[in-house]
Amino acid sequence: MRQQLKHFGIKGTFLVLKNGQIFDKFANANNVDTSYMINSVQKFMTAGMILRGVELHKITLNDKLSKFYPKVAGSNNVTIRDLLNMTSGLSLKGGFKLNHHPYISDHYTLELAQNNTVYNSFMHGKWQYSSLNYLYLSGITAKIYRMSFEEAFNKLYIEPLHLHHTSFVWDAIKNPNSHLVQGHVNGLPYNNQKILNDAHADLGAGSIVSSNADVVKILRYIFSDSFVNNIFWQDYFKGQSSFTKYYAGLYDKGSFYSANGAGSGYYTLLRTSKDFKTLILFQTNQTQTGKFDLSKAHINHIMKVLMSI
Fold this sequence. Notes:
The protein has eleven helices and 15 strands. By secondary structure, the chain is an alpha+beta fold. It has one domain (2-308): Beta-lactamase (3-Layer(aba) Sandwich), CATH 3.40.710. A seven-stranded antiparallel β-sheet has the order 2-1-14-13-12-11-10, sandwiched between helices. The protein has a three-stranded antiparallel β-sheet with strand order 3-9-6. The protein has a three-stranded mixed β-sheet with strand order 8-7-15, with no helix packed on it. Helix 5 (132-145) crosses helix 6. It is globular, with a radius of gyration of 18 Å. It starts with a helix and ends with a helix.
């Protein structure tokens, strides 16, 4: 297994669990406790905050987006479940980029999104990737918990789990003692200001930095009975009718779930069994053009090997 991981082709940090126990952890660059931008892998964390709200009767999966953001096109048709599963039919107007606008506040970012969202009724109920869904979920999270998304994330995850290698990227960049390493693309450092612009535009979808151990702590906490009832999870995972099976930030690959994050000079690749006891997590700050899909395929292969032993 370690030989397969060592020949991965990209330097970074690895964590492997088998049957709930650490099977291997090592770094062929940086350290085992290094923090990276996890990008879209954050989505399962944002989804967990919403589903915890369901558990606490603050919201339901059938609530309409119009309950929170009535100005959004199609919001009377789109449900919370649609947003979680990316079957909303929502996207930003062609050519409009939230990260091209200076950050003023989360409220301002969401106002920009509302004014530039389009609804495609033909795509409603069909899976279509758009981080916009999770931006709206971050705003809804703030509304149901009556605090900022950042405060809610801290209270639900960082404080109870005593996480010391997880934070929002803007805090990590300004903290000289942060475990965050600089992201690189093709050997060149990625611009930190651009990282901040991207992160604020993807608040619930790509604004967190974390270490391997912390990501796994959050994952296993979310899918434990102590956070959301297991019976609810079983029911929720049956509710996706789209061809692409995507639930709460995780892709259903048949025998395991996957989550992938790429951007700002970082890759994060997570593969987990459906009981969350056997998994592989790889992170790197040395990204290369054209390598992401190859890396995903390689990790998928290693995960299948791990599950067979």
